[in-house]
Amino acid sequence: RQSADLLSFMPFVSFCREGCFSPISPEACPLVQSFMCHNRTFILDGHVQLKTGLQTQERHLFLFTDLLVVAKSKSHSHFKLKCQARLCEMWTAFCTEEVCEGSTDPERSFVLGWPTTNCVVNFRSAEQKETWLSFLQSRIREEKEKDYPKSIPLKIIAKDVGTCAYSKTLSVTNVDTANDVILMALQQLGINGSEKDYKLWVISGREDAPYPLIGHEYPFGIKMSHIRDAMPHGSKHCACPRQLQGSFLTEQLPQELQCQFVLKPSRLAVCQQLNDLSQKSFKRKRSIINWAFWRGPGTHLDNAPLSSTSAAPGKLFGLLLTAICEDDNLPKPLL
Hints:
Layout (H helix, E strand, L loop, with lengths): L3 H4 L5 E3 L5 E3 L6 H6 L6 E11 L2 E10 L2 E7 L5 E8 L4 E3 L15 E6 L2 E6 L3 H21 L4 E8 L7 E8 L4 H12 L8 E7 L6 E2 L6 H11 L29 E7 L1 H11 L10 H6 L21 E2 L2 E2 H4 L11
Parallel strand pairs: 10-14
Antiparallel strand pairs: 1-2, 3-4, 3-9, 4-5, 5-6, 7-8, 8-9, 10-11, 12-13, 12-14, 15-16
């Protein structure tokens, strides 16, 4: 594709796994046809690699004016739908090292995310990457401008901060990032620190366990995704249904559609607290090593009592900690 200005006049191009190009009109693609409607326009498509952690998947992206569709190529013209995301609930970022393992070419990749998902999108060329980034950022911005409502109440629960758990309800807009919400919560709760000292975790009925946000995500979009999924079938696919008010903006949702936001010290902050406590021999604490690897089930992740014994005290994977640590630091692969 030569330039963003010419994209709308170019034919639909499907990139097959073998690397050959086959011109196919969008009308001939059943998947594209299934998403077309009077208020939605098809913009562009492209073959990409999606990377999360150690996993790499070959995928095909279809961008519409209000929607991104992720599909798996089955043939030159047939695709299997894998997921779809509303652009008003999406984000872009460049912290690729936070999302996937291994090296990625920053000239051909960036982070793309939507509620509960962050992935690195790897393109065939720097030009294709810039085209997609420009279109996505422009469309996300325009869809957020049309979004309704523009702000919602968001309850933040503070845990492992001080001696007890407490909460505050903040007014969060659709352009506030997770780091913005952390700073607002710290101010409202009267807690000293910065966004580097704390993480905002999400407990979602869709997930098996809590997960931390990196910082660039939109908590507004995450909660609104849960709320929209609770709407009646005829309106939940609408970008800004006017029924989104009253009880739908509170916690009165089915358990599987609820999401909670929990503010907790980041790992670095917790490690520093543990180091501070290490001088006080009368206090029992969880070691930095055990804290990094201990995981509790479900939402009881941080409420389980500390155990005074373990199956192999002082050992990790059967090896002495002194044998695998240098200067009291875990090896990088384990971290």
